[in-house]
Input
Amino acid sequence: MIKLKNIQKKYVLSKQNSVIALNNVSLEIQQGEFVAIIGKSGSGKTTLLNTIACLDKQIKGEYFLDNILINKKKQKQLAKIRNKYFGFVFQNFNLLQKLTAYENIEVPLIYKKVPRRNRKKLIEEYAEKVGIKERLSHKPNELSGGQQQRIAIARALVTNPQIIIADEPTGALDEATGIQIMNILKELNKEGKTVIVVTHDIDIANQARRKITVSDGKIISDVKVGER
Amino acid sequence: MIYESIKMVFKVFKTNKLRTFLTMLGIIIGIFSITIIFAISTATQHSLTSQLSFLDDTSKIKVSITGSFDEETGTNIINIPSSEIFALEKDENIKKVDELVTYSYKEVDEMRQKEAEESSGMWWNSYQCQAITYSALDMSETSQLSLIEGRNFSQMDDINRLPFCVISTEIANKMLRKSNDVIGNTLKINNIDFEVIGVYSAKDTYYESVVYVLNSYAKYHFGQDIIPQQKYYQIEPISPDLKDTVTETVNNKLLEYLNSNEFFMEQDFSSYEDQLSSVFGIIELVFGGIAGLSILVGGIGIMNIMLVSVNERIKEIGIRMALGANSGNIKLQFLIEGIMLTILSGVIGMLIAMGVVYGVNQFISNSEFSESGFVLAINMVTTAKTIGFCGVIGIIFGIYPANKAAKLNPVDALRYE
Output
């Protein structure tokens, strides 16, 4: 599914000073895996995630997603690929504050060009799945962190993507809510979605079936955990 | 997509109400000024033209035939028979020919004559008698004469060739010395008694001495006894566009019988109107230019605030890009915001202008100027054009901020706090 070959990413700060965020990283992730990427801040884990998520194409090396060579694609095609393959869950939810929960979940459908009459059913279906169907008319600032993250998950799922990218999904939540969110992600993985979680929380990482540790732009360990 | 974008724009406006309003103010004032300037200019022009073209509507061609003065008889000789001019009606471009014949006649005021004879000799009071075809005499329509007493000619009078006449108040006053009632009284013209059916108030001294009779009667009864002094024709083309062609036709026809100095075709008032409209064109250009500058300034204000808006919403742009928006979608979102800002301003400016126009018209119609014919009006075509122009301003000043938003790198935008 995801195949990274000798990926290199360099941030040029000035002529003399540049930071290597990813140093010849090669990585393969199969469909249906539950991967946790862990590392300290500045280790390059977020850069790795952005690369996988096709948010950053200014990289050296080759990235194949579903056998498509991503780093040769144009910006417009990348937008389409993001919309089709990925659902994003962010640490601070990244909901659009001016829109209601319903409208937030609708956004990816608009860009997917789903006709308006078909959207309502999809939105309600996924809102029900994450348990926030009664909250659809609320705006994000009227909801708790957990509820907001559920909306973000519904928004990530509504286009039925194959891969869920979660960047510190529990970072802004209390422990109990965090567990609930992780349970949703685990459930999604069971349904066949590839889930990639970036975290620095070892407890969260331990819930994944594969742990990739990044440090100084390199993968220093890649451990698969057996079925529990 | 466009629907959602428009919805989003309104949400943005709602969260920044004051800012949006202030941004729009420049365009509102600009559009308001342009609309009012054009309304005033058109109204003034219209009211001036209507006063200039009081004789008739400019669609008709007016021909005066004076003929040549014959010194032996002391009268004018007109060498073209009326029938030749009426024959022009057969021309495919000509709709109608109306004739107005001026006869010169002398009426003896018996009372005054006696007095005059006793003192110094003869006293003559000369009037002009204008015989007109019925349709040309539709006075209410041409507003040529304003009737103050009695009635106007009717079609039945024309058909039955009745010896009726309509006279001026000045003539009526003279008649009143002989009788208490003017209407129903008779006026002797060329030894024929004409019954007075109406009295009009003369617009100027020329009309004070004019007696109108029906041409149908005059032609039949005056016969060769009275020689017309002047003939006047109104020729109406089928459409105003054909005016030049018809003028040419009529001119050629007249030249077959007459010398070029024996007639003249009135260049009516369209040439004045042309001058007038060119003057107003310049005025509109100058004031419109000033108002246009206001729109330009407003447009720059819009660009400024849109750049702020893009900066404020970098995070939102990042989120949208992550969710699958391409740069085109983002560009469209901001372009629509720019267009909405300007069009909305345009509509508001226009509505205020309409309100003012309505108020001014109400005021004028209730005041002493109500007769001036000065009515402000907003042309719907101009309105549509102006609002379209606003849209163009929106695109021009929205495109730079929109491009700036669209060029953002998703990663950077998403991480922006």
The radius of gyration of chain B is 34 Å.
